[in-house]
Amino acid sequence: MTVNEIKNMTYTQFVAYIDQWNVPPGALDTINQWAVFGHVNQNSNLLEIACTTGLSSREIARITGCSSTGIDICEESIKSAKMNAEIYGRGLNLKYLSGDACEFTTEERFSHIIIGASLGFFKEPKKMLDRITSFFGESGYLLASPYYSCGEMPDELKRDCQRVIGITPTTMSYDIVRDIYADFEVAYEKRCSIVLETKGQMEKYTYDSVQRTCELRGITDDSVKKAMYDRLYEIKDVSNELHRYQAYSVLVLRYLNGVYPNKFLELF
């Protein structure tokens, strides 16, 4: 691996290469709320859509003893997810598949499906949600944690996000974001503000993550280490700035066959 190769990777390729443990908004706090309020247990069968390197499905399996399957379109991310399962998920019932969730088909049925904050990555979010419901049996829970706007985001920051992370950050209001999930029943919701990370916290996370990557991949070249550190820190820094203008909602959404997509249950 060379410095230029690190710099020329796409965001997805880089995250997979360094095995970044991509978290949902709220990280383990959100995952624990999903587990508790989604009634996930050892008999549950869970699917994670756009699982990247597999953290959410792995950790909820650790907490509850459930069976977890993850799918992601990036083959390198799935390789990292499988590696993490072997190293950090020993004894857990984990399975990771490389493929496009928009084309994924299976006879298996799931009691819980994690979408996290990834619905916005799909070109047709509503269509994707309808597809997701086909993976449930008679009932199930969708576990989501979408971002929504809580302030006017500067155009320069939007451009930085596109350049560094490869996405356009959401500027949708809470009401617009919630309406995307309107066909589900709200079993649990908590709206959350975000406390920005300090420079020291970001530096420690970046250093520790890069050190682990170097150990796993046998990297000793200091210039490559620095290139990885600089790129990961920039990702963290831009993400942290985005959080000045974002909040998120932890959602446990109930699906009932015969009710979905109708709205019979009032929100309050």
Tags for this model:
Rossmann fold; 20% strand; 8-stranded mixed beta sheet; 10 helices; 8 strands; 268 residues; 43% helix; alpha/beta
Molecular structure report:
The chain has a single domain, classed as 3-Layer(aba) Sandwich (Rossmann fold). 43% of the residues lie in helices and 20% in strands. The chain is built from 10 helices and 8 strands. Strands 1, 2, 3, 4, 5, 6, 7 and 8 form an 8-stranded mixed beta sheet that branches. The longest helix has 21 residues, at 222-242. The mean pLDDT is 94.
Short description:
The chain has one domain: Rossmann fold (3-Layer(aba) Sandwich), CATH 3.40.50.
CATH C-level = Alpha Beta
Instruction: Supply the number of structural domains.
Output: 1
Radius of gyration: 19 Å
**Main sheet?**
8 strands, mixed
Any low-confidence stretches, pLDDT <50, length ≥5? Answer: none
**CATH level-two architecture:** 3-Layer(aba) Sandwich
Q: What is the number of helices?
A: 10
- SS-based structural class? alpha/beta
Order of helices and strands: HHHEHEHEEHEEHHEHHE
Instruction: Please indicate the percent range of residues in DSSP E strands (runs of 2 or more).
Output: 15-25%
